[in-house]
Amino acid sequence: MSHKLSGISVAVMCALLAGVATAADMQTADKQNSNTGQNSAPGVINAGGFEIKPALGLSIGTNDNVGLSSGAVPKTSSSFSILRPSLLIDMPTNGQVYSATYSGAYANYTSSSQDNYNDQNYGLAAQNDWTARVNSLVNFDYNIGHNARNALPTANLSKELWHTTGVKGKVHYGADGAQGQFELAAGQISKRYDTNNALANNLGNTALYNYDATPVTGSFFYKVAPATQMILQAGTTNYSYQNAAAKIYDSKEQQYMVGVKWDATAKTSGNIRYGSVTKSFNSGTFATVTSPAWNAAVTWSPRTYSVVNFALTQATAEGYTMGSSVISRDSIVNWTHGWSSYITSMLSYDDGNDTFQGVNTVNKRQTYEAKLSYAVNRWLNAGVDFQNWKRNSNIAGLNYTQSIAMIVLDGTL
Questions:
Q1: Is the N or the C terminus of the chain less surrounded, counting Cβ atoms within 10 Å?
Q2: Cα–Cα distance between 142 and 124 in angstroms, integer?
Q3: Which residues of 322-333 are buried (b: 16+ CB within 10 A; e: fewer)?
Q4: Interval 90-137: pLDDT, tens
Q5: Whole-model pTM?
């Protein structure tokens, strides 16, 4: 395994450092011309009513199993570099905010060019406060992404490229502090695979995975204490597959939940919901699936500089032709601690389980992560990040372990 950095990695490093130097020059110029009001806050450029927030990240490291091999084929180990540019443009006007966002992840593997990827996200949003009681949020997103080799439950042997288009809207009724409040959310999401979508056989034919989803959810919040709300929620999602051979997976998913949301003290806050989800299939080919569902997120802050987040989820998901669907469960704990004003650490653990319905397939997942960051100055953070991924399945070809170690740089203006 070669640990030598590629020419692209070196070029990217130079570009980042040059960008950091430019940011430093801009800071000096801002101080010299502070009376012009060019910048209203660190990292923000004011330009004719627009607030522009650019950022640039770079990760350089090694991956001991790029293709997520189970061992049946040799593992691919490689050094890599990932460039992560992002841009947020806000236009606040009369209490309303209109936004445009971009983020990307451009990865280059020194010893495995077939696994290079260029993931991107484009977004538009409009947040409007129409009255003291009525506000809305509308989002449009376009994503370009990928599945790594062997990431899908069908054991794909090549990287798969896809894109999604989605629009989501939410309307909230109820003034801050009101006894009762109501939210209605709806959307439409389309996912399309761009590789291996014209294969003659079904095995590995990603055209079978293309679908449209239309979720609708209503939530009612009732205040039972100054900082506590009870929640009643009902939702439905229709899935429509685009390939004729995949129409047997067309389904309607219905979910009902009850819960509580609180921010009772300076140390704890949370949102816990529990209920059931039922997935029925239009063709009748598969049996209806009914399962408990929950979604819990609790934050505990024993100190202002130390935060622990807990998350528990169970929900249904699409199964990529592996059975009728999948029930996924995750238990996540994350601890972030500020050792000083310059040094921050993060430890994370995720224990997950995917049970595919109608077939004898169960995947168990575990993820560990440890990260240490150092604030070099206001506009540059440097750190190290270690990750370990593991999937155990009763299908041997779906097993894998993967370890990643990298140096991370994050810069802003």
A1: N
A2: 9
A3: bbbbbbbbbebe
A4: 999 887 999 999 999 999 999 999 999 999 999 999 999 999 999 999
A5: 0.85
